[in-house]
Design a protein that fits this description.
- 4 copies of one chain form a homotetramer.
- By secondary structure, chain A is α+β, with helices and mostly antiparallel strands.
- Chain A has 2 domains: 110 residues, 2,3-Dihydroxybiphenyl 1,2-Dioxygenase, domain 1; 124 residues, 2,3-Dihydroxybiphenyl 1,2-Dioxygenase, domain 1 (Roll).
- Chain A is built from 4 helices and 16 strands.
- In chain A, strands 2-3-4-1-5-8-7-6 form an 8-stranded mixed beta sheet. An 8-stranded mixed beta sheet of chain A has the order 10-11-12-9-13-16-15-14, with helices on one face.
- The longest helix of chain A is centred in the first third of the chain and has 14 residues.
- Chains A and B meet through loops of A and loops of B.
Chain lengths: 268, 268, 268, 268
């Protein structure tokens, strides 16, 4: 299936204002629309919203969005019917046609192709706030069956493996899978699930990662810095893990590597 | 045609030692092999060589290499036969099967799929020298017929347009075309040709661009700094243009943007 | 005389709102007070204001401020009396006792010791705006008699020479003089004067210099970027020269070197 | 006493070659001379050596060097005689006259004024190796009597307090004292002593701190990274703590703030 890239995440949060104070106020996400109990945000490079926050009674992940092309929409439709997966068509702001699916592992996937474009902000540097969040990069998912999920996402959804770890008995422990040409759009980590480990946004460079840590420290929010700044062995990326006010984990991430070669050997 | 990305460039240089003193000694390219009159170099992220320097009587561009997948090799073969383009099969170090073609505009293209992998150096930071050249990014070609070349590279070779400029009468003046998911693998600039304007390598971040300028200045080679450091309006990338000892122009380049979306509107 | 460092500059500007839009809005200076026709600004590291803008009929430099210690105030007083220089005592916001002097070369110097401290902002990173202006670094003055001015500032005012250039006949062409331990608090450049060539603010690192250029470009103010970003041969600092709305030249500057050694040989 | 700045440190190391592989090979210190069992190193900004390694039977700190001016040499001489401190005159490479003193707290201080200058390397960027160590910044000393040592270093040696911490009962727990105009040349930390906690070198910017961590990781020496990269609350500096092969702790440090103002209030 011609998935292009991870496209968005929708989270339930308990206090929308508090969440916006974190995502918009501290991290500098652009708030593009607030409507009812939902807010739509994006990074400075994105032409579509990529983060939707909806006020709910408890924190939860409502959607994991993937952008596909037009053919991909048909393939996705065929796939869900063939597999008998629960699904339905939906619309959202600027996204007239979305296919919501519960995948065989329980993850709430949403596929969409067309999207209305927001004005280009990439070079509006005078309007940047915070560390300069650019774009959504990946989702990291807990799964009790990493091996099976990894194989399924490769074979049925067209993802390509870039890195993996194994336990002492040679069983797959974690895997990194991509579509867009860097280390991952989705990763699976061994653990109780289906559950989100974290979602990640791309920053322009390692200095921006340091700046994000400084901003959190300046605002007396070091308790929300979970780990980093540091460099991952896997992916080679610079990172910072933060917890949002509901405990959703967001990673700020930059500087991994190009993975478009079809003969690229996965790194163990 | 399933071109994956720009893969390499081969240059004729008049004095191989002098060229190596520039590329290896100052810019820190990894010299992987020297054999006869040729040297093979790569960046720290690459698993294949991407720059071949061959001693010749005058400076020239010998090959513009594109990596394809296995199917792409067959498509390329079919294309050259169908178009009646001059071509032949070649081999080179670590590249057992290369299809050399003179394209309709006179550019010396080489297509290859399989390549032997060199050891992974990306995380061997203690061995980095110079500003930290990572990987080949793009080729910029002069052409007297930008419009026709752009259309041909889109329609026959599968490139996708990300940015373009027009003259006052609305004629295409320059175009940026990609395969690998950032702003370009190839660009066409209006001018006498077929001729190379420059080739470019990706650096890890803008600080590395500044470091490259410092290194050239330290070595009393400011005369080889042609332009920059600066940020391109087009591509949004940080850049530095250098002239090698033969006058070949190399750009150090970083931080453009993701272009994988099929509905990404080209920027005028 | 125990001058500690350059302390502030006061400029006449033709349109205070336009100037604030530049200094506060784009460059992110902290506006600490607006009163009548004057505005008081500072960088994030400073505990005292360092830039005063006063609306006037034409652009001009009203004061070049130097911080001294208590003994320095007495020494300054003795000096102006001994030399018979025009002078008077003044006060300003948070500076109860300032000695204004017209020095023998015509520069409008102001000496002050005590100053009320503003709240510490250095680590309030969540409140930073713009490239992160930290503190005033130096003044660069045009003078038709660089040699005499340099000698006078060394011998009578206690400045120490770090770098200098000479013309072909060995006459001093430009000089860099410091008190605070980096390359300069004051520089003299050959030219019609007494006149200000530029004043400079210290930024945290070279990335902040690049960010300033990006911000100006984003706001469509590239016409106000006069030169840079680049690295000075003299001082080794990264710099960007900007013109404010009245044509006053401000340099953003970072990363020169330590000059506290009494046996440091001046660089020619 | 007119101490200018911290000037050098001499360490005993068990295996000089192993230590040089760390300091010169990985951290890129410039090795300027090797003679008998000693090696003399410096950072790229320094005109004098600042790190002396001498092979010994066990790891130890042999000297804590402070640069003074000529008057300072006389003041130091008068001080040691007045206090009856054990002392003697010594010479070393490029340092014809050094006064070695055991201070009242047991620290092995060495004062020196004149020093032969080595060639200027600051702008020889093509010769930089490693993260770009610039200059010695400070010494951090364990002391069981922080309060007394701090007062003594202020009153007798002319240091100035910039920051301090207190325990719950208001007793001084740690203090930061400077001469050269940034946060410290010497710090005292509560603990068993007299003993060195760490010595620190200044790097050009936070990216260089990250690069140092990358280099250690690339060389499979993460076990020698003790803490960081991170930003200190105290001093505001970016840092990385490393252990050398003998367990001597070296800090890589950058971006604190200017402290020359006589009325700068110490930060608690």
């Amino acid at each position: 299936m011609a998935i292009v890239r991870v496209g968005f995440i929708e989270l339930w949060v308990r206090d929308l204002e508090k969440s916006l104070e974190f995502y918009e106020g501290l991290l500098g996400f652009r708030l593009e629309r607030k409507e009812g109990k939902s807010a739509y945000l994006r990074g400075y490079e994105e032409l579509e919203w990529s983060l939707k926050l909806t006020q709910g009674d408890f924190p939860a992940v409502r959607s994991l969005g993937f952008k596909v092309d037009e053919r991909g929409m048909e393939e996705a439709q065929a796939w869900v019917e063939q597999e008998g997966l629960p699904h339905r068509l939906e619309t959202d702001w600027g996204r007239p046609r979305m296919l919501r699916v519960q995948d065989p592992f329980g993850y709430p996937l949403v596929f969409y192709a067309g999207a209305e474009k927001l004005p280009r902000m990439l070079q509006e540097y005078h309007l940047y706030r915070g560390p300069g969040i650019l774009r959504i990069d990946h989702l990291n998912l807990f799964s009790p069956e990493v091996e099976r999920a990894t194989r399924y996402y490769q074979e049925r959804l067209g993802f390509r493996l870039t890195e993996y770890t194994e336990d002492e008995e040679g069983r797959l422990w974690a895997s990194w899978l991509h579509r867009k040409g860097n280390v991952h759009d989705v990763a699976f980590t061994n653990g109780e699930g289906p559950r989100l480990h974290h979602f990640a946004y791309w920053l322009p460079d390692p200095m921006a990662i340091l700046k994000a840590a400084d901003i959190l420290a300046g605002a007396r929010r070091t308790n929300q810095i979970e780990r980093g700044p540091g460099r991952h062995g896997i992916s080679n990326a610079m990172f910072l893990y933060l917890k949002d006010p509901d405990g959703h984990r967001i990673e700020l991430y930059t500087s991994d590597y190009l993975t478009v070669d079809p003969d690229l050997p996965p790194v163990r």
